Amino acid sequence: MRVRRETMRRPILRLGFGGSVLLALVIGWWYFLPTPLFTVPYSTVILDKEGEIMGMTVASDGQYRVSGRGRLSMKYMAALLCFEDKRFLTHSGVDPLAIGRALWLNVRSGSVVSGG
């Protein structure tokens, strides 16, 4: 049984056309992204002569955010973990107890009052 060459080429042409369209969409999406991509305000950090954090202000959007240069003091990290998520070091990124608590509070109040 002979297979026509034309029928064999159609899937290859479709794949090539689909790949070209996908590539054009990705290039177009990348081209229209704003430059710079993120304009995030940072907090002002006051350091002592040893480089330890003495104080920090809130960024203009109401968040504490540092640039990531250097290291944070252990006291600051302990305070952050205590305030944000006491069980952060014992779960793998999702705290089932916090999800359950948030679900219970939200159902009980009839609106979103807590997140997990």
Query: What radius of gyration results from the CA coordinates?
Result: 26 Å
Helix content: 40-55%
Question: How many DSSP H or I helices?
Answer: 3
* First-to-last CA distance: 63 Å
- How many strand elements? 2
- Largest sheet properties: 2 strands, antiparallel
Strand order across the largest sheet: 1-2
Low-confidence stretches: none
What does this structure look like?
This protein is mainly α. The chain has a domain at 89-116. The chain is 45% helix and 6% strand. It is built from three helices and two strands; from the N terminus they run H-E-E-H-H. A two-stranded antiparallel ribbon has the order 1-2. Strand 1 (45-47) and strand 2 form a beta hairpin. The longest helix is centred in the first third of the chain and has 27 residues, at 5-31. The N and C termini lie far apart (63 Å).
Question: What labels would you give this structure?
Answer:
45% helix, two-stranded antiparallel ribbon, 3 helices, 116 residues, 2 strands, mainly alpha, 6% strand
Q: Topology of this protein?
A:
Elements: H1 5-31, E1 45-47, E2 53-56, H2 74-84, H3 96-109
Antiparallel strand pairs: 1-2
